[in-house]
Amino acid sequence: MPLPDFPPPKEILDMEPEELAPFVLRHLQKQREKLNRYNFTLPNDRELHETLGLDYDRYLKRLMEAWVWLEREGLVAPTPGEQGDWMYVTDRGRKIVTSEDFTAYRQAALFPGHFDPVLVRMVRPLFLRGDYETAVFRALKEVEVRVRAKGAFTNDDFGVDLMKKAFGPTGPLTDKKAPKAEQDRVRELFTGALGAFKNPASHREVRFDDPSEVIDVLSLANQLLRIVDRA
Description:
mainly alpha, Arc Repressor Mutant, subunit A, three-stranded antiparallel sheet, 11 helices, 3 strands, elongated
């Protein structure tokens, strides 16, 4: 028979490892016997084999790929002192075994570790809480703050106008060696980013429903910070 509490076998065939992994983890958490990557896939299930036909091998591979994903994320680990492939659900795995916690974990994994230290310290907690609007606002605010400091501007200089001054023809952060067209595009990149992502949140509620989209915006902010630091 198919594994209990799992999606239908034919749905499993099209699932990504990270999508199937929560089901595998919850299944493992319920097991009272020793865990092994080979004893949860029911490889000799004739009924399931007949249902899936030639896709049965693919079904087993999907389950194994989910198991390997759990290992890679440190949610299951080899049992100390045991020979062979015996495993256990780690403390980390037990903490996120509910679907809600697992969703939060997957979203946290989206946040790149190579981001600017300020973004990691100040923006990542907002992202993990799902406060995407504030996370985007805070990231673009850091761009503004750093441009102001690097260009020795005052607090009276802010927003799009600050970017125009900082990266204008005589601006202190403008790469004077770059072609004029490139200088103009960099200035437009900064003014566009603040105008599109920071300023709207200053005046109205901006909803972000897709964490991947938020990461895209944060990546843009991270790149802008790199440009400022190199200026």
